[in-house]
């Protein structure tokens, strides 16, 4: 088996042992995102406080490792941040996946930078961005 | 002819182009020998004129080559006459033609169409579409877990209103070859028709439409070494004669006036417009090559490879093969799932290791829903695959769960 694989440890651990894959009671926002062509299907659940800080977050669903790990990493990163900060991260992440982010921006994405090589895999881009687009959709009226 | 797979592979430019790739997606499309590519080229270089149109030598020559390909296809599946061979783009078009024209001929409101749950979308949607149009009822023939059908269940579905059974001769998921002959007998007792999808069976087994007594059989050239864009609808001549055309236009008529039209005889009635003569010539060459290798040799080699793949995958914990427990029922098709690993990840990891397989529902979404499996990974073999490729595939599948972070 050669080493030419995009499945690094960060990605596989978030997939096999997710930190945030569960339901939360009474979320302030809940939204489902689906990639109909490949069957990735996630529902994001977010709780924010009166100051717009994300206090709780989780996801449930099915899909490939890239879609699931990306969701888990995203939730891990946005808990404790404001919705505005979370949406800025989302912009940077999507830039990275489209191969347009600077090294500095990629570094600031911390664990999510483990998905940077997806920018070379056009068929998997939609898997990586599903949770982030769902987050965007969730706050589009903000 | 003895079977030397490495010598055979030299006939395919694909394998010298992609030396390290194990191509195990033959159920989607096969590779093409140089001789097939040359035959298509030769047609366009030396014999190119529009068949049937001109009275000059070249058009006659083009017509002869096209019709010779039809005779070859007829003989390959043991049809009674070449008039029973309609050239189309692919099996999908063949089945759309059958659904439309047969529907026009014999289906009316309240009639029943039986479709097997195992069908590729191309042998399901045309029938459903036609049934909607005709206000006919669709009934489904469900399979057992091993992919087989119960003839008793078919009997309970057949009524005096049944007009058509649409069923695959070989499932593109299970690899199982279905008992078309027995199904045809039951269907004919009700004066209904059986339409078999031979897309997977024709390249990998002996086909004898007379012995099967099926009324229609569809197959594609591109899954059996031929070019893309050429396929066949076989139909019994007395049925084709009574069916209205599917497409209308050039070269499918006897006479046209402003008031009336008389259609051409079969099979030309169903071949409107300029035909794919180059494709037909390529398919004829593909049939020659299959005949030279010998279907018995092909079956023997594919069965040996299937055994290795089936046993190798069966031994891996957390790997589950769909369909029969007996490799002999798989005919080169191994569709599987791995616990907790999504099929897209499985096929991606295999691709990263130069192994080409297919992931998804393989155009059989209703079957996946029936089996309650969202999607699967499929390896589909061809006689030019090698034992080394199959072993490499098995070794790679073994590594997938550990690579994905599962410790057991």
Map the helices and strands.
The complex is a heterodimer of chains A (142) and B (408).
Chain A: H1 9-16, E1 29-35, E2 40-48, E3 54-62, H2 65-78, H3 83-97, H4 103-108, H5 125-138
Antiparallel strand pairs in A: 1-2, 2-3
Chain B: H1 5-9, H2 13-17, E1 22-23, H3 34-46, H4 57-76, E2 85-88, H5 91-106, E3 112-116, H6 125-134, E4 137-141, H7 151-157, E5 162-168, H8 180-189, E6 193-197, H9 201-204, H10 209-212, E7 216-220, E8 231-235, H11 237-242, E9 253-256, E10 261-263, H12 277-293, H13 295-314, E11 319-321, E12 333-338, H14 343-352, E13 355-356, E14 358-360, H15 365-371, E15 376-380, H16 387-403
Parallel strand pairs in B: 1-13, 3-4, 3-5, 5-6, 6-7
Antiparallel strand pairs in B: 2-8, 7-8, 9-10, 11-12, 12-15, 14-15
Helix pairs in contact in B: 3-12, 4-12, 5-6, 13-16
Features:
heterodimer; A: about 140 residues; Sufe protein. Chain: A; 3-stranded antiparallel beta sheet; 3 strands; about 40% helix; B: about 400 residues; alpha/beta; Aspartate Aminotransferase, domain 1; 2 domains; 7-stranded mixed beta sheet; 4-stranded antiparallel beta sheet; 16 helices
3D architecture notes:
The complex is a heterodimer of chains A (142) and B (408). Chain A contains 5 helices and 3 strands. Chain A has 142 residues and is of the alpha+beta class. In chain A, strand 2 (40-48) and strand 3 form a beta hairpin. In chain A, helix 1 (9-16) packs across helix 2 (65-78), helix 2 (65-78) packs parallel to helix 5 (125-138) and helix 3 (83-97) runs antiparallel to helix 5. Chain A is globular, with a radius of gyration of 14 Å. Chain B folds into 2 domains: 5-29 and 294-403, Aspartate Aminotransferase, domain 1 (Alpha-Beta Complex); 37-290, 3-Layer(aba) Sandwich (Aspartate Aminotransferase, domain 2). Chain B has 16 helices and 15 strands. Chain B has helices at 5-9, 13-17, 34-46, 57-76, 91-106, 125-134, 151-157, 180-189, 201-204, 209-212, 237-242, 277-293, 295-314, 343-352, 365-371, 387-403, and strands at 22-23, 85-88, 112-116, 137-141, 162-168, 193-197, 216-220, 231-235, 253-256, 261-263, 319-321, 333-338, 355-356, 358-360, 376-380. Chain B has a 7-stranded mixed sheet with strand order 2-8-7-6-5-3-4, with helices on both faces. A 4-stranded antiparallel sheet of chain B has the order 11-12-15-14, covered by helices on one side. In chain B, strand 5 (162-168), helix 8 and strand 6 (193-197) form a beta-alpha-beta unit. Chain B starts with a helix and ends in a 5-residue tail after the last helix.
